[in-house]
């Protein structure tokens, strides 16, 4: 009996261990083409690299390489891969060493500082059809997107997306709509908030006008200080995108980032007309991620070329009070200003939540050279909804005196009053037989009555309203029509 034994070398060839790592390849010049690259470990510690694309052109061959660095940075070729077959979208390469001859293992490859490029053809290497970061540069699913708002051109706006890499670094991807083909728009991360402004801390890749996009791998500031994705999400900064290298003063988009990001939490207060009925608007308080506040003033009816100082004061409009916070002056051409607020003028810190409970009001003045003229004002914080009108309740003691209550007075007999130009005061009179008159001279009778801004002057029962005009004299008087002892001085101030 004879026995025949067949020998095969199959079992002696390197075999796949089942251990593998897959990375994504994203579309570049053709949105229909994308895929994956899979690194598979063999039992001899070599690596099978398999590229699989969908949407590739049938019949074409697409050169492929592993490069050093990230796709955003670009780098030299480390390894030539087998070209991708356009008919199948596939290529396979067994790797034992880099292009320079240095041996490389599976574990080293999946932790490589690199990326893969797939080119359109051997004669058109400049056109990429797919690309992806690999190894420590792989992008995770962790990301944060910030809004970039229009500045000089309302048609241009977009986002800045921060994506975390496996190594903890960040990819900053800007995507704008409305950009112009052929124009390269410079972009930076700056220190502080947009409202405060600050120096450039990170140079970003310029935005390509034809696509509106740019990508920058960020792992350090311009000073060389390292910064991670997590640190960027808590960074005190903002992004500016400039029109071009020759028009850096023209901003096309910008947005606060990191801890300065604006939340959806806000409160809007009315700013009412004072000296000019055509001017009014709002003050919007918006909460930042840090808990600080962006105060945005928006007025209609302002004059181009005029800069109007603005402040938050202590107390209500009716009471008046000292300045607590200086705000950015309103630009006449736009009627707008923005101020990042985190402390009072005296250095005391104040948060958004504390501002919403602050005892204050806002004044907007006509100009730095005309601070006495207020163009808009309104109560804010704890005083929101409070009347801007100071009211005095007036009764009488026989024919000897008027008695005032309210407006800071308690049972005041014929008190002197100090009223401010531009403000409104009401006198609720309950003194039958004693008509209450505002006059330019301190005499009884109805002559010399001051009626500018006054309604119902001379009432003995009812409400007299007085909006003090800007041209009111420095001194007026209140007096009973019939009794000279029922009188007092009104001092008019700014």
Question: What would you say this structure looks like, in words?
Answer:
- This protein has 494 residues and is mainly β.
- The chain folds into four domains: 122 residues, Immunoglobulin-like; 120 residues, Immunoglobulin-like (Sandwich); 120 residues, Superoxide dismutase, copper/zinc binding domain (Immunoglobulin-like, Sandwich); 104 residues, Cupredoxins -  blue copper proteins (Immunoglobulin-like, Sandwich).
- It has three helices and 34 strands.
- The protein has an eight-stranded antiparallel beta sheet.
- It starts with 15 loop residues before the first strand and ends with a strand.
- The N terminus is likely disordered.
Brief description of this entry?
The chain has helices spanning 106-109, 229-232, 352-355, and strands at 16-27, 34-42, 47-54, 61-68, 77-85, 90-95, 113-121, 124-135, 139-150, 157-165, 170-177, 184-191, 200-208, 213-218, 236-244, 247-258, 262-273, 280-288, 293-300, 307-314, 323-331, 336-341, 359-367, 370-381, 390-397, 401-406, 409-413, 417-420, 424-430, 436-439, 454-455, 461-467, 475-480, 487-493. With 494 residues, it is mostly beta strands.
Kindly provide the radius of gyration, computed on alpha-carbon positions and rounded to a whole number of angstroms.
37 Å
Main pleated-sheet profile: 8 strands, antiparallel
The neighbouring-strand order within the major sheet is 5-4-7-8-1-2-3-6
Structural class: mainly beta
How many angstroms separate the termini? 127 Å
Give the strand tally: 34
Strand percentage, roughly?
Answer: over 45%
Q: Which regions have little confidence, pLDDT < 50, spanning 5+ residues?
A: 1-8
Number of helices: 3
The residue-averaged pLDDT reads 94
Number of domains: 4
CATH class of the largest domain, anyone? Mainly Beta
Q: Please state the second-level CATH architecture of the largest domain.
A: Sandwich
